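Late entry, written up from scratch paper. The run itself happened at the end of the previous shift, but nothing got recorded in the book at the time, so transcribing now.
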Amino acid sequence: MHRIYHILVVEDDFNTNQVICEFLKNSGYTVTAAFGGDAAIDCFFEHPYDLVILDIMLTALSDEYTQIKSFDLQADE
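Output as recorded:
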């Protein structure tokens, strides 16, 4: 029996997200679509994923996440 991988697709352009998701579903993967950074973070912490496909030009995240990430980066210094 083979394992079914779960992929999170993070892309804020609806059409691009849809094309990627359909391709992956037709290839036998379980896919979750997120249309922005905040939605992606919510998904990421709700379920385990084997792979995250992330739009590197994703629009800005909410101020709350940006503040948390900034705090986290300062703690690493």
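Strands lie at 6-10, 30-34, 51-54.
(Scratch paper discarded after transcription.)
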